[in-house]
Amino acid sequence: MSETRPPQSTVLEVNDLNTIFRTRDGEVHAVNHVDFSLATGELLGVVGESGSGKSVTMMSLLKLLPSPPAEIVSGEILFEGRDVLKMSDDELRALRGGDIGFIFQDPMTSLNPVFTVGYQLTEALREHLDINKKEARKRAASLLAKVGIAQPEQRLKDFPHQFSGGMRQRVMIAMALACEPKVLIADEPTTALDVTIQAQILELVRDLRRDQGMGIIWITHDLGVVAGIADRVIVMYGGQIVEHATVEALFKDPRHPYTRALLAAMPSVDAERTEKLHSIAGQPPSLNKRPASCSFAPRCEHAFGRCTEENPPLIETSGGHQVACWLEHPQYMEPPSEMHLRESF
Amino acid sequence: MGAEAILRVDGLSMYFPVYRGVLRKKVGEIKAVDEVSFDIAKGETLGLVGESGCGKSTTGRAILKLYDPTAGRIELQGKDITDLEGDALREIRTDMQMIFQDPQACLNPRMTVGSIIAEPLDEHTRLKKRQKRERVRELLNAVGMNPDFENRYPHEFSGGQRQRIGIARALALEPKFIVCDEPIAALDVSIQAQVVNLLEDLQKEHDLTYLFISHDLSMVRHIADRIAVMYLGRLVELAPRQQLYTMPRHPYTKALLSAVPEPDPAREAVRERIILKGDVPSPANPPSGCNFSTRCPIAEEKCRRETPAWREMDGGRFVACHMVQ
């Protein structure tokens, strides 16, 4: 957590990113006005439900989305000051898997079943580093050892199907770490795993982070995972950032009604058991229009006139805590009838 | 539990044969479920938790006689149903139903919602067309959906709504006992709470008994009265909710509970975690002695030799472990 934070320097900066998909049924606005930055050695958690745009945002960072249908219509992605969106294909290739590593959710579909793990690991190493086959092999074995796989030299000769789910995810992590990236993007890396295996992987990530000091973006829908490992958290809803805060502030004093409702909807393993779970009525929004109003308004208990008329901007409330909600806006004048609602938060 | 038990499972085992070679010779078996015993009282929810591949879904399916169990006895409402076949089996199927994990896969995409929900009625009742339609509308209403949706198709609905359709179908014949096989695993957090609340309301209204299969320990803690923990085909612990979560006895239950992430950074930072080494062994080749002995932090010589017995402790708790006194 915070005690291991080295001197901060921004390694990745995203400004006003907008990604849309052009489909036969019209445009899907998957990412709208997303801004954030990542410092070295920092772990940024990105939380949201399916369809909230968290994966598309991160795929956009490396231009991994197929175009068409996807298109990054505006924005700026600065990696160490260089704009990723203006890079040539060669520069992008050097970046992907070199300076920026990526771990995907499902390790079975992201590993090639017809090549050995050793081949796939050394391929990345030889592509990015100027080393021969033997050195690459040695390096690959040490990577497997680092992520906690026993008998690494032998295991290099195995195919992905010979590994269990947790082991495959370790191989994916080894691959992402192969070239000592400055930024690691992990897209739901533990979602497909059992809790005891998830605990092993989280422990591994804590250790790796301490040793290597890279910036990590961790995408998940599990607030519990984020609470354990993140420094800062972004909450996404309907393709937008609705709240952005340090992990302590987010869980102690969540400001956005969506974040509060999400926390209330989760039962806990050791806190007081409630008689009834707090549920969020309604469905997540469809993204076929550019958001013109607050996208959470139809499901929000506290929505009032302005919420359906105007999209709230992300504003800072205190000490870096940002929230996109008209209730938190300085211009917001509380109508007397709604006083009791705020108290009941 | 005694006389009020609606379901009684005794020594249930389900082995799947493994065939190899050109002659498809039987070379071994996978012990998916091995000597599982428990009771469920009327109106109770029993949670069945464990990691993927531990046999929890197979247990649920074997109880509903979707498989032919290898050994053991299943009693529903005092009646032995283990060896029922044909018409006799069809008759008792109206008392026990199932809600499936993936609402996308368990609804026929070519049938309207109305005909999906009416299918059990077609099979098991002699209701007139109009009565059936009325019942379907009533069921849709009961699961919190607009009755006018009966002419729509499953793809027009979101995951949470599809799960509601699956629940309506399971309720159509007014069953007494429902196996819920990971009914919320495929849903988002905000939708999970909706479905769990619905299941709880329906239970109260219709006096239902649930076997709630899940890998989500925090959700099971919310919904279940008693919880059974399964590991590699065998039950390792069964206890009332409060006891299991505040004072787990089996080392596997302890590790499992400590691995659940908590949405609270302050507590996460100080929590004591038991990180298990390695993976779950293959059920085709389970270790000798206790199944958990290969990963157990407190295993001794005896654990690797002898299979621990399933014994009853104080306060309705059952444990299978040599090291628990």
Report on this structure:
- The complex is a heterodimer of chains A (345) and B (325).
- Chain A is an alpha/beta fold and 345 residues long.
- Helices cover 31% and strands 23% of the residues of chain A.
- Chain A is built from twelve helices and twelve strands.
- Chain A has helices at residues 54-61, 89-95, 107-110, 117-128, 133-146, 152-155, 165-177, 195-212, 223-229, 247-252, 257-265, 339-343; strands spanning 10-23, 26-39, 43-47, 70-79, 82-83, 100-103, 183-187, 215-220, 232-237, 240-246, 315-318, 321-323.
- Chain A has an eight-stranded mixed β-sheet with strand order 6-7-8-3-9-10-12-11, sandwiched between helices.
- In chain A, strand 7, helix 8 and strand 8 form a beta-alpha-beta unit.
- By secondary structure, chain B is an alpha/beta fold.
- Chain B has helices at residues 56-63, 86-93, 113-124, 129-142, 159-171, 189-206, 217-223, 241-246, 251-259, 265-270, 301-305, and strands spanning 5-20, 25-41, 45-49, 71-76, 79-80, 96-99, 177-181, 209-214, 226-231, 234-240, 311-312, 318-319.
- The model of chain B has no long low-confidence stretch (mean pLDDT 90).
- Chain A binds chain B through residues 1, 49-50, 164-167, 194-200, 202-203, 221-228, 247-248, 251-252, 261-263, 265-270, 273-274, 276-281, 283-284, and chain B through 51-52, 158, 160-161, 188-194, 196-197, 200, 215, 217-219, 221-222, 241, 245-246, 255-266, 268-269, 273, 275-276, 279-280.
Total helical elements of chain B: 11
Which percent band covers the strand fraction of chain B? Answer: 15-25%
Coarse shape of chain B? globular
User: Uncertain regions of chain A: pLDDT < 50 for 5+ in a row?
Assistant: 1-6, 336-345
Share of residues in strands of chain A: 15-25%
